[in-house]
Q: What sequence folds into this?
């Protein structure tokens, strides 16, 4: 198969021929029709993820495509099915999975991290009966690929972890793919959304996604601006980027008894959090890590009903040959970038 791979962390990313994967007895092989360019893939390439121990490595973890082959133990799927997957692939049998919390599975695997990912023609997915999600015939692969990480993660962060309610104030720090998704979902839930970013282009996309108030993060104290706009602070604030600065600003943006939701991955090292404010205002600090496959139907129904439009967040589509350069420059193009096959079928 053709795939984008790197031999050293932070080194060159190039397209090369690599061996085709084979399905585990419980797994499946997916022929990739679209895969997203995500900041988490950048962290993988930089060596920030301890799950990547063997090089060369193929990044990519949000994908949609067609089942190419299934293992001998798979019962619910046949080749030819149109599917997507959550980026956290659960085992289906640990204590967390038994409780329905597959997004924090104790034996989870993640394409692009625990094994080769989806910047490739083919990708292996474990425990297919637990993790594959059928696609509606009228949903494009590009739209579906954007659900597996950013949009589904934002959906759970807003609706289930942040418990955003109509009329509440929501601040979203970082208007990349996750942030724009969170803005769209919170707006659809009836919240008033403040978008925070240092890019005017990103803030413009945030307005299109449903934000009604805007803060230029490069112009002074972003948290103070959010507190002023919301007359005391947001009910829920989401760090969708993942940096010490955005994490602290998100916590400081909250009103009394507000909820901070950390979605963006933070690199190693110290992350100062104003814990005095957490204690004094009884703030809640929450993490949100993807969404289990069984939890997709409400999100899919909102998309089908026209309440959510994840396709509108895609601003660029590129081929596999351009994926390496695009990953190196991630963040320079607002919105969501999708990689689609450059080869004939």
A:
């Amino acid at each position: 198969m053709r795939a984008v791979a790197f031999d050293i962390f932070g080194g060159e990313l190039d397209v090369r021929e690599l061996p085709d994967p084979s399905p585990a007895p419980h797994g499946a092989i997916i022929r990739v029709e679209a895969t997203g360019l995500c900041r988490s893939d950048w962290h993988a390439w930089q060596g920030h993820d301890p799950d990547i121990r063997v090089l060369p490595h193929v990044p990519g973890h949000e994908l949609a495509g067609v089942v190419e082959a299934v293992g001998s133990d798979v019962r619910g799927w046949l080749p030819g099915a149109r599917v997507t997957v959550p980026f956290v692939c659960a085992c289906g049998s640990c204590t967390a999975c038994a409780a329905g919390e597959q997004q924090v599975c104790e034996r989870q695997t993640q394409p692009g991290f625990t094994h080769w990912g989806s910047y490739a023609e083919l990708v292996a997915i474990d425990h297919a009966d637990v993790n594959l999600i059928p696609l509606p015939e009228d949903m494009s692969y590009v739209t579906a690929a954007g659900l597996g990480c950013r949009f589904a993660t934002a959906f759970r962060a807003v609706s289930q972890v942040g418990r955003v309610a109509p009329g509440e104030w929501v601040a979203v720090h970082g208007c990349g793919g996750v942030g724009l998704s969170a803005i769209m979902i919170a707006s659809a839930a009836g919240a008033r959304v403040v978008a925070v970013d240092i890019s005017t282009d990103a803030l413009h996309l945030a307005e299109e996604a449903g934000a009604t108030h805007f803060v230029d993060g490069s112009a002074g104290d972003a948290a103070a601006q959010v507190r002023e706009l919301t007359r005391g602070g947001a009910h829920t604030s989401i760090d969708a980027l993942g940096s010490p600065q955005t994490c602290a600003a998100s916590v400081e943006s909250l009103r009394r008894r507000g909820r901070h939701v950390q979605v963006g991955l933070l690199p190693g090292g110290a992350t100062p959090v104003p814990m005095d404010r957490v204690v004094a205002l009884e703030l809640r600090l929450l993490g949100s890590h993807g969404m289990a496959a069984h939890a997709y139907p409400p999100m899919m129904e909102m998309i089908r009903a026209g309440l959510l439009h994840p396709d509108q967040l895609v601003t660029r589509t590129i081929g596999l040959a351009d994926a390496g350069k695009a990953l190196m420059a991630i963040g320079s193009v607002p919105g969501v970038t999708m990689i689609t096959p450059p080869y004939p079928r």
